[in-house]
Amino acid sequence: MKTTVHYFEEVELGDEVPALERRATPEAVRLFVEIARRKNVKLFTESEAARKVGSSKPIVPGDLVMAYIAQALQKWAPEATIEVLDVIFRQPMSQMEPLHAGGLVTDLGDPSDGRVTCDVFVIGEQGDRLVLGTAQLTMPSKESAPNP
Amino acid sequence: MTSLPNFDHTLLGTDFDLGRVEITRQMLDKYCEAVGDAEAAATDVAPITLPTILIAPSEFPSIGLKHSGSHVLATWQLESRQPIYVDDTIAISMRLEDVYAKTGRSGTMVFVVWSVNFSNQHGETVALGRKSFITRPVAD
Q1: Chain B residues touching chain A at CB-CB below 8 Å
Q2: What CATH number is associated with residue A72?
Q3: How confident is residue B140, by pLDDT bands cut at 50, 70 and 90?
Q4: What domain count does chain A have?
């Protein structure tokens, strides 16, 4: 598995986007809900409220987890531009739960458009896919890279 | 099985102006700290996911939905059209696209779908979004 790719030509169908592990701490979630100007934050701070959506612990905002997916893609392909990120939140995610954000290349354009399509996901500690979706990236071609 | 949700149907297709948000260095730094993205914090370009925090849930227009339960994020589709930079001022508008119900084993769930347009101070669309929420019966 290639941990990093820089050019479109290095990517092949079926390549994996290496999983990025993140644990959302209560402090990170508090900061996130503050900048997101959330007023009703009980789901993110109180276990009792989180139980109503099926989690035993305060949950992680889906918007925050979406950022983990973008980071996994960007770490794998630092020169890529993420054009589209499209996700479905299937289950609530608990704070401090190890979350693994990753992906798989499912379609490729050609060097002239540099388009790379990936399935993306976030896997929880029980192995469940908690978030599913797709991403579309564009990557530079070796042909268009400046000569050294 | 589906049923028709009870809400203000006249709002379907209506555009709502949610005002403007300035992208400050401090906002970007805090966002990057919260999501653990040190690399993005070192630049003046916002990560593609920054628009997710620009709409406070309390600013969502009320649609008069008569359906009780827990209210959670269901889907988010974000399309980046242009980079968003520190010191940009982003105008946000939303449109109510759809409201529909589905009934499953746990009861009836109502989905509310919004489209979102983010444009910068030059009037250029920088991102498009489609965001849906689900109101579902409270878990046992």
Answers
A1: 27, 30-31, 33-37, 39-40, 47-49, 52-53, 56-58, 70, 72-80, 138-139
A2: 3.10.129.10
A3: low
A4: 1
Tell me, yes or no, whether A3 lies in a domain.
no
Amino acid at A140: P
**What residues contact residue B43 under an 8 Å CB cut-off, 6+ apart?**
none
Q: How far is B77 from chain A (nearest CA, A)?
A: 4
Domain containing residue A71:
8-144
pTM of the predicted model, to two decimals? 0.94
Interface test with A, best of B18, B72, B113 (most A CBs within 10 A): B72
Kindly provide the ipTM of the predicted complex, given to two decimals.
Answer: 0.92
Quick one: which of B61, B132, B48, B53 has its CA closest to A85? B48
Q: Indicate the SS3 state at residue B36.
A: coil
A61 and chain B: CB distance < 8 Å anywhere?
A: yes
A94-143: pLDDT as tens digits: 999 999 999 999 999 999 999 999 999 999 999 999 999 999 999 999 98
Count of positions (residues) in chain A? 148
Please check whether residue A65 lies inside any domain of the structure: yes
Name the token pair of B111: 């989905």
In a domain, A82, yes or no: yes
In sequence order, the 6+-apart residues with CB closer than 8 A to the CB of A148 are none
CB contact (8 A) between residue A62 and residue B34: no
pLDDT tens column, A71-101: 999 999 999 999 999 999 999 999 999 999 9
- The partner residue sitting opposite A54, judged by closest CB among B34, B36, B139, is B139
Domains present along chain B, CATH in parentheses: 9-136 (3.10.129.10)
A2 in a structural domain: no
